[in-house]
Amino acid sequence: MRQYHFVMHLSKDECLQYYQGHFRKLVVTAVSGERIQISAKHFHRFIQRDGIHGFFTLTLDSNGKLVRLVKNS
């Protein structure tokens, strides 16, 4: 398994664009400098009134499939 750590900041307006169907994928840059493309649907549970903000850990299996996405406190 492989883990990536990254910071995410999306405004409430940017989150609204997801609901309106303007995008389905997000590209994030991990702390390591690697760029990762993630389906936006995986962030749905992290949306707050002001958008999505925080430090996340993404775990992928050996085939690149999402195992876990966690918002770290």
Query: SSE string, helix = H, strand = E?
Result: EHEEEE
Strand proportion, as a percent range, falls in over 45%
Terminal Cα separation, in Å?
A: 22 Å
Overall mean confidence score, pLDDT: 94
- At the first level of CATH, the class is Mainly Beta
Q: Supply the CATH architecture.
A: Beta Barrel
Quote the CATH topology: OB fold (Dihydrolipoamide Acetyltransferase, E2P)
Secondary structure tally, helices:
1
Biggest β-sheet description: 3 strands, antiparallel
Give the strand tally: 5
Secondary structural class: mainly beta
Low-confidence segments, given as residue ranges, are none
Spatial strand order of the main sheet? 1-4-5
The gist of it:
It comes from Alkalimonas collagenimarina. By secondary structure, the chain is mainly beta.
Q: How would you explain this protein's 3D organization?
A:
It is built from 1 helix and 5 strands, in the order E-H-E-E-E-E. The mean pLDDT is 94. With 73 residues, the protein is mainly β. It is 11% helix and 48% strand. It has a 3-stranded antiparallel beta sheet. The protein has one domain: OB fold (Dihydrolipoamide Acetyltransferase, E2P), CATH 2.40.50. Pfam families: DUF2835. This is DUF2835 family protein.
Write the layout of secondary structure elements.
Layout: E1 2-10, H1 12-19, E2 25-29, E3 35-39, E4 52-60, E5 66-72
Antiparallel strand pairs: 1-4, 2-3, 4-5
Observed structural traits:
mainly beta, OB fold (Dihydrolipoamide Acetyltransferase, E2P), three-stranded antiparallel β-sheet, 5 strands
